[in-house]
Amino acid sequence: MRRVVFNQKGGVGKSSITCNLAAICASHGKKTLVIDLDPQGNSTHYLLGQGTKPEITIADYFSQTVSFNLSPKKPAEFVIPTAYENLSVIASDPELEAIEQKLESRHKIYKLRDLLGKLEKDFDHVFIDTAPALNFYTTSALVCADKVLIPFDCDAFSRHALYNIIEVIGEMREDHNENLEVEGIIANQFQPRANLPAQIIEELVSENHPVLPVYLNQSVKMRESHQACKPLIHFAPSHPLTQQFIELYNLISGDKPATKKTGSKKKTPVTV
User: Fold this and answer.
1) What is the per-residue pLDDT for 192?
2) The predicted structure's pLDDT at residue 30
3) Average pLDDT score over residue span 43-68
4) Is the pLDDT of residue 191 over 50?
5) Of the candidates 146, 135, 75, which has an alpha carbon nearest to the alpha carbon of residue 103?
6) 88/48 Cα distance (integer angstroms)
7) 180, pLDDT greater than 70
C-alpha cells in the first residue's frame, strides 16, 4: 500500500501525519517506509534526528536517472533504517530544488514509481511526504500512489484550497494513475472548543467529501515530539493525541473501524 500525504497549502501537518502514521504502522509489525520528497526535510529530521546529514538521499536517486553511471546504486541502498523497528526512510535533500527543472525537462515523472516497484517486496506500507506545492515531486508521488490522505486545518482558506486539491487529484487519476483515490480528509489541529472548525467539517460532510471521522486535536505535545525527534507512539504513547493517531491508523488500515469522532465538539474537551 502506497499512501501520499498531500496538500498544496503549507502548515497543515503533512510531515507530522506522515511520520506518526508510519511509526504506528511499524509498531504493528509492518515493514514501513517513509519517503521524504520535501526539500525542507522535516520528515527526515523527525525520524533520523535534527542535524542528521544522510550520506545518500532521494536527490541522489533522481540525479542518477539523468546522468550516465556505470555503477548506479541499487534501490535498497537509498533506504536508511531508523532507530525504530520496522521503520525506514528515504531521506530528503535541499538539492531536490536544484535538480527539479532538469528532471521535469527530461520527463522523469515515472522514476519514483520505478523505484517503489523494485522495493515492493521489501515493504508492506509506504508513506510519502510532499512539499506544499504541485511540482515535479508531488506529481511523481501521485503517479505512483494508491491512496491520498489530505490534511486539513479547518479554516476557510484551507476549505477553498481543498476543492482545488480534489480537482487536481481527479485530473491525475484521469491522465496518469487510474487507480489513485482519495482515502480521506484528515481534520488536523482541531479545536474542540471552537464553533467554526466543527461547522466547516459538517459542511464538508454534507457536500459528500470523505472527511475521516477521527479528528486530530491541536496540542503542544506535537511540537515537543518534533523537538525530541520522536514520533508520538514512542514519545508519549498514552497521550490523547497519540490515541487519536492510533484510532486514525486503525481506521485507514482496517484493523479496527472507528466508531466515534475523536475530538468532536460534542465530546468532553481534552486538556492538552
Assistant:
1) 86
2) 97
3) 94
4) yes
5) 135
6) 9
7) yes
φ, ψ of residue 248 in degrees (nearest 5): -65, -45
Q: Which three cell numbers stand for residue 69?
A: 553511471
- CB count, 10 Å around CB of 70? 4
Task: Please tell me the distance from the alpha carbon of residue 29 to that of residue 221, in angstroms, as a whole number.
Answer: 25
Residue 75 CA to residue 79 CA, distance in Å, equals 7
**Residue 36: beta bridge partners?**
129
pLDDT of res. 81: 97
Q: Which tens digits make up the pLDDT trace of 193-203?
A: 888 889 999 99
* DSSP-derived pairing of the beta strands 32-36 and 125-129: parallel
Grid coordinates standing for 100?
527539479
Strand segments (E) across the chain: 2-5, 32-36, 80-81, 87-90, 125-129, 147-152, 181-187
Angle between helices 136-144 and 95-105 (to 10 degrees): 70
Tell me if 213 sits within 8 A of 261, measured CB to CB.
yes
